[in-house]
Amino acid sequence: AMGGSCSILGIPSPKGPNTVGCTDFMMDHTAKGSFFRLYYPCQETDRAEKPNWVPCREYFNGLADFMKIKRSLGERIFNYLFGSYKIPAYTDAPFKSSEKCPVVIFSHGLGAFRTLYSAICVELASQGFIVASVEHRDESASATYYYREKTESEKAGENGPKSSASARDDLVQEWMYYRALKHRESEFPLRNNQVKQRANECILALDRLTAINAGVAVQNVLRTQFDWTTLENSMDLCRTAVVGHSFGGATVIEALCKEVKFKCGVALDAWMFPLDDDIFPHVKQPVFFINSEKFQWAGNISRMRKLDSTVIQRKMITIRGTVHQSFPDFTFLTTNWIGKLLKLKGEIDPVIAMDLCNKATLAFLQRHLGLEKSFNQWDPLIDGEDDNLIQGTNVTVLQSAM
Ligand SMILES: CCN(CC)CCN(C[C@]12C[C@](c3ccc(C(F)(F)F)cc3)(C1)C2)C(=O)Cn1c(SCc2ccc(F)cc2)nc(=O)c2c1C=CC2
Predict the structure, then answer these.
(1) Which value does ipTM take for this structure?
(2) Cα Rg of the chain, angstroms
(3) How far apart are CA 362 and CA 284, in angstroms?
(4) Interval between CA 73 and ligand 1 midpoint (Å)
(5) 34-42, strands of its sheet edge to edge
(6) Per-residue pLDDT tens for 249-258?
(7) Which of 177, 254, 330, 335 for a ligand 1 pocket mutation test, highest count of atoms within 8 Å of Cβ?
């Protein structure tokens, strides 16, 4: 639409043939457990609700912490700006797929959380994937929650903290907020430990899905109306990939290195800083780097180049006119001038940018998961063959930095 002033704000509806359901899973209840939002192909439904984009106000508090603004102010601003948006999927809708679904584990960026990349996750689910968007407990998320058992006195005392209605009544909800780097704290050790924990959490989520697929009785700590037994034998766990944005892109590389069940990875505007140099030779799977035009710099690109290989497919494209925030959902949720001011939008129409990113991702996943779909129609995008794409990078990487 011209000027975008008449474009309706909101997360774009998925383009694939499947209606998308979405539900939450946590097991076990501790901070060491697995917590993810599941997006999946579902039965046509008109009864189910669409979930709020931001599940509860503690996430706005965490976002305020991340943005270094006062919580009282941040919560009001974010609630005003984003409080009414819905995810284009149906809460707890019954799972339905005529064939086994390939699986994607998604890892969010620094200061984000499990629901902020729904344009990507919902699109993949509408194309037949089961997507688990993990919520990391490494203190890199704006906010996340888990539970602890009630103490005897809490059980006894009526005035103890009421356990939230969303979980077992012997549990009390605990919130973990974004941990900013302390003054004079060296960043690498923190980020390196976090990226290892993040990779383990992606692997744990895959393990949980493996158990669910095998029909092992799993206790979801969260009280949802979703019947997890309907997912028995629904997943093709030989066709599993890991996808992530920024810090989540580094998590993709770390997870591929640790878990060969991940057959390939797609790193969206990866931030390579947290990774050890010595892991690059140990990554044996294909990797696809999809970069924004504005975020990347020579040092970051040269670390991606360390993964270049003649025998294993490593691809890189850059989407013209995009910024770092062109990948999370924010890019759809502000008018042009706020979006450009806050660097949430680039020059390119966010819908076009996301469409290119999703199609290139689907083509790469078909190629390396051996899918029998028609995503290969978008193979040219993998090699940057589009007016809005650059093959490789726009960043000048000095030969010496290679
Ligand atoms: C000042 C804070 N300072 C913290 C270190 C830098 C903050 N920052 C730039 C920001 C995120 C920005 C943002 C968000 C959200 C609104 C809103 F208004 F729309 F809510 C506005 C403005 C502020 C653009 C980044 O960290 C960029 N970034 C990100 S942003 C991922 C994210 C986070 C929160 C979201 F809601 C959505 C997406 N993920 C990464 O993995 C990495 C980096 C950098 C290196 C590794």
Answers:
(1) 0.97
(2) 20
(3) 20
(4) 18
(5) 90-91, 19-27, 34-42, 130-134, 101-107, 235-245, 262-268, 287-292, 314-319, 389-391
(6) 999 999 999 9
(7) 330
